[in-house]
Amino acid sequence: MNAVIHVLFVSASVSDEAVLTSLLAREQIGEDVKLSAAASAQAFYDALYSEQSYQVIVVDDRQAWSDWPGIIAICAKNRPDALLALLSSAEQPQQQESALSQGVAAVYPRNSAGLIALTKLVGKLAAQERSFSLRQEVEAFDEAEEAAEEERGKLVYAVSHDLQDPLQLARRYADILNDDFEDALGESGAKVLDHLKFNLGRTQEMLDELLEYSRLQHSRPEREPVDFNELLDEVTALYKITLDEIGGSIIRQQSLPTLVVDRRQFLRVFQNLIGNAIKFRSDRPLHIAVRAQRVRNEWRIGIKDNGIGISEEDAGRIFSMFERGSAAADYPGTGMGLAICKRIVQNHGGKIWVRSTFGSGSVFIFSVPQADDAAEGLIK
Question: 10 Å Cβ neighbour count for 325?
Fold first, then answer.
């Protein structure tokens, strides 16, 4: 979208029009401003009653066909949204006061300094128009993305729900083959069956996560005060055996807050992030550090590891559905875990992001807004 400020210059002075045009070009806003001149009564009325919108109308107080107060009054009546400016040839305070009382936003002397000041005003309006236009484009893009995400969610739910029954039937037949026809299958047949059951299990896992992702899109969090220290303790206990086997550790660098969130959902966030840190560990002893920081009206929780890290290219896409880092190809997973984390955090009004150095480790950070001071009593 190309944002253009349309200026109507009501003046019989060809030289003033040329100077103003030159100044606009010098300020590098000539492409953002369309200057139309009305040097006669007929040209003025043709412009005024045209379909062209004018953000600024500049009136020269020296008109042969009418006095400037009359022109200002006509502009104010017919173009109420336009900013009115007056070029004054008389340095009289009374004229300036009179103009301002009639709705004129700015009065400039009819000289080089006045034209320069007028140019700067138009430049500021052009910059504001560009900013507004850009915001509109961003908002339109966000709305389109949300609509597309909504449609994807509906499709995901429908497909994953409809596939549940045939998948369960296939898994049941696989169990029957394993239980009742083991001898007839032979060694090679048993290997094929094991491979089939493994992939059916992965498919079931993917469908379960798709259904969960879809439910997160269409349900509100069941909020309650949740002690994040308890969530971390629960997840640490869940992975204790694995951590002991690999010689890993989870360190709480300071006490975590109590926040009003959906407990089950944020337990899933901790499980996914810490589970990923364990899965994508390096040859070094694994160390996971969890910290919390209050930043203005939100809490930020960081989970840092010294694992294999994520490339800069992968870091920008790993929170999307089915996306996995290039280094994750040799690791099991569906590519839905971080997308689920992102959806949970967004449902609570927060954001999630990652800082990583490939080969050195990553820190995943998510924010949870703490909306007002009344919630302070819920924070430890």
Answer: 23
